[in-house]
Amino acid sequence: MPKEQIDYSRFQYIVYDATYFHKDGCLLNLMSATDQRIIAHLYVKKESFKETCPWFMSLKQQGLNPLFITTDGERSVLRAMKLVWPQTKLQRCLYHIQHEGMRWLRTYPKSEAGKALRATLSTLSRIKTNKEKYTFIHEYRNWVSQYKDYILSLPRTTVASKDLRRTIVLLDNALPDMFYYLEDKLVHATTNALEGFHSRLKADYRRHRGLSKEHRIQYIHWYCYYANKTI
Fold it and tell me: Does the pLDDT of residue 2 top 80, yes or no?
């Protein structure tokens, strides 16, 4: 495959996402947020700190030093990004936060605390203004104040306790990095653009089932290479 000559220094806003193919391979991808160009990709066994950190370091040495990266909440990847680019702001994907929190709170929460938090969380992906941001934060903090004693009273082994505590940890950890997109319109609030690319890749790949692992990897590399030729 031809080696692309890319000036990484010009990419200030990027989106990161990973997607698995079967159980023995994962595609790591970086996309330019401004023109949706795939600027770097790597096929690895598993998304992990061990795989992403050296890759990010290599890209940094080639000039990649973004202002913002939109990413999901994979902790090993966040750790790698913070180590390689300590000054870069990491916009947490609102869709992932909302989806994960709603999953833990269940479709039909039994407790009033779960119902109230689910109602607040359901508004997250629709936040478009600072006023809506402050409303969300205010409602969440009021919820914590109102239900703190109730949550502490629950036995830690109960499903309700585990679900509520997980959601609180999720929101508390993500909150400082959830709303950069409101201050800079070039920042993507979600990783949807790159996830859409992965969906198209997988749809096309399914028409070539039966490829060996080696040929599958080559197919993915070529797909990412030619994707940029259509931009």
Answer: no
**Residue 231: its pLDDT value, please?**
46
Furthest C-alpha separation in the chain: 61
Q: What is the pTM of this model?
A: 0.92
Alpha-carbon distance 29 to 169, whole Å? 27
Residues 15/40, Cβ–Cβ less than 8 Å: no
Residue 180 lies in a domain: no
- CA terminus-to-terminus distance, the chain: 19
CB 219 within 8 A of CB 205: yes
- State how far the Cα of 53 lies from the Cα of 77, in Å rounded to an integer: 8
CA 54 to chain centre: 19
How far is Cα 89 from Cα 69, in angstroms, rounded to an integer? 6
Give the structural domain span for 44.
8-92+190-230
In a domain, 3, yes or no: no
Per-residue tokens: 101: 């929190």
Residue matched to tokens 């028409």: 207
